[in-house]
Amino acid sequence: MPVPAPVLVVACLEDPTADLVLGELYDRDVPVVRFDPGADFPRHAALETFIDGTGMKGSLGTQTRDLDLAGIRAVYWRQPTPYRRPGDLDKYTGAWVTDQSRFGLGGVMAALPGAFYLNHPWRNRDAEHKPVQLATADVRVTMVGDQVFPVRIDGAPGLDWRHDYPSLTYQGVEAPTAVIKSMRAYLDTFGLVFGAFDFSLTHDGQWVFLECNPNGQWAWFDEPIPQQISSAIADHLTRARKLT
């Protein structure tokens, strides 16, 4: 049998959210390569690429393996380390290396031929321009494709529940049909597959939209929610087919 095309996970080394998805993929015997551009490149990784009449080709070499860029079927783009200046370079040379890494390697990573992205880094960037800041968010809805995972969050002593995780309690709830349709339309507008939506609940039960984080966290919820979300993400990554 042919070896399945690999999934590329772009994430920093210490990312428990990415770890859950990696574990799900490993359990399914899916070939996976983890890569952190800001930490690995250019010291511990090498990129070779060219464009001919059929498109982009090349390879990415890490400390553990060489990866055919044209053979990647899906990319799970989490929160990689920002590009940074190598320590032995002066300020100005280091700034030039950092910029070239971001534009060169970053451009290639965002244009892998035929790969499915969850989410595409440029779509994440577009969606991160938020019209409002996080206030009292009583419901976090993680959406993966058409699957929704709404969780009510209670116990926050202040306006922003992110400042006191130990005091929080979580309860699965049902999202209104109109809210689900609106979230789906939001993801479609920005070309996203994944989104973490925050809502506040009014006293009369109305859902008030606050923001959508295209790369939001979800590993800190009580089980079985993280397992369900990681399984949904793995489903999309493993079912992806190379575009031709």
**Adjacency order of strands in the biggest sheet:** 10-9-8-11-12
Number of domains: 2
List low-confidence stretches: 131-137
Order of H and E elements: EHEHEEEEHEHEEEHEEH
Q: What's the tally of helices?
A: 6
- What is the radius of gyration? 19 Å
> In whole angstroms, how far apart are the ends?
22 Å
Structural class from helices and strands? alpha/beta
**Fraction in helix:** 25-40%
> Largest beta sheet, briefly?
5 strands, antiparallel
The averaged pLDDT comes out at: 87
% residues in beta strands:
25-35%
Fold and architecture overview:
By secondary structure, the protein is of the alpha/beta class. The protein has 2 domains: 7-119, no CATH class; 126-214, D-amino Acid Aminotransferase, Chain A, domain 1 (2-Layer Sandwich). It is 29% helix and 27% strand. It has 6 helices and 12 strands. The protein has a 5-stranded antiparallel beta sheet with strand order 10-9-8-11-12. A 4-stranded parallel beta sheet has the order 2-1-6-7, with helices on one face. A hairpin with a 2-residue loop joins strand 8 (139-144) and strand 9. Helix 1 (16-27) packs across helix 6 (225-239). The model is unreliable at 131-137 (pLDDT under 50).
